[in-house]
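Hey, I'm writing a tutorial for new members on how sequence and structure tokens pair up, and I'd like a real worked example in the thread rather than a made-up one. If someone can provide the structure for the chain below, I'll link this post from the tutorial.
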Amino acid sequence: MEKDYVLAMYDVRGKQEFIFRTNRLREIVGGSWLIRDIYEDYLYESADAVGGKIYNYRKEEGDVSFSRNSFEKHLEEGYIGEIVYEGGGNFLLLFRDEQTFRDVTYQFTKTVTERIGSLRVLGTCIRINGFDAFDEDRARLYKEHRKNEAQESNIAPWSCLPIVQVDRKTSQPLVDYDYSSEKIEAIDRIKRQIQAKGVEDKLTKESTAKLLKYYKEAERMKASDYDKLSKLERDFYCNNEDLLDNLVTEKGIESQLAVIYIDGNSMGAKVQKVTEGKKTYEDCIKALRQFSDETQRIYVEDGVEHALQDLQGGDSKKVYRIVVSAGDEINFIVNAHDAFNCAKSYLEYLEKQESTSACAGIAVFHSHAPYADVYRIAEEACESGKQKMKEEELQCASFVDFHICQGATGVSLEQIRDDENGDIISRPWLLWKKDSKECPEVTTYEEVDTALEFFRCFTRTNVKGLISAAKEGIVPLQMELNRMYGHSKDKDEKKHKEAWEKLSKKLVENEKKWRGIIYDMALCYDLWFRDEGKK
């Protein structure tokens, strides 16, 4: 006789909006950690409240295998459910029956609302038909979940009277610090930390939860057995101050930093592909768990380490700030001069892995710019690479795009480019592809190198003059290039002549594309490509 087991899925709603609803970096990091730990901090506690525990294969045995016998054995031992898989923003579990799922979900939702206020979690379950058709059950679960998404209420769990103080950015009510769930002594200590950092006395419930999470985790990670962050992240929080001004080249003179946003390509499709040719829960769950662990290792642990390996200053003076690192989504802050090499090193590491790729977006900004707005620009730059992949029908490739924030960031990147540049830009740049398909209209990094060969024959002043010439049109650009070459003292050198002839030929073959390449290269020349000796 089959049991009434159910396959359930939880989905944190509006993750990006929740994390980046503020421009305070500590709140942003705390918000990302809240979402990272939401199941461990709140779901397990909710299961305890209804009389049971959830079996976590990572904590209990560290073995990715799954079987019906082991699941039923765990139920006999007092567990009420078991984690199936976590990844792609979803959290899958098996519960002993639907009523247990409903009880846990009710308590889970209630706890999250009470402790955080604005974070929403949606849960869905379906009854399974044995353990022989995981993909079919998962498809039914996703279908049911989409129905729940359409019916979900977006009403905030609070209302504000005219006499209530509210946060001007979020319109959430300002409340005192939440004492409901922690020891008074711990809260008092953390509250004093928050106030010492210059944060106002009253915060929203959401801001309070984010800051409390940030400071509690910052204290915990000093312990040797703390394993929630990569070694690079732990090293940062244990050994560095977290002021962005400490990442700039020279305070008061050059305060440019860069946000790098990296996101894996087609991860949803890859998750589906992992279980192709497999049917049973045993085979599918093992494959999904292995995929989850491998994704964490490649995209977060090893990938970020490769990105940061060549930072200026060497090992003893590396400056960086990892903000979010979860699954296949990474974003971190580095000195602006390091940004392109960091993104390039990360994507080149992925090229060496099997069937992995990502796109990167870079937003260069000044250290006191609103971080959430700059982050959005970096995300949109990354998305432009993904959009180019779709247009070119590429399956495994990596693009990088960038934007140098020089003014207001309250509008979309597309609008900024329409207003500032028209259609002359060549970005995003294709760093590499494994597809055999030819993409003649896509700008490759090899083509960027061709322009750079020519640029390095001239002074910085000449190169920067190409920006306005390129914006004016192809004829002014050609005139400026001819002037530069004609007035060069070393034009007879073989290397210089070859670079000139190569660039001139490319410009004749495709005026629009190479006008964009020259414009983009001149724009970022000082940051990433100029030889230090050039004036």
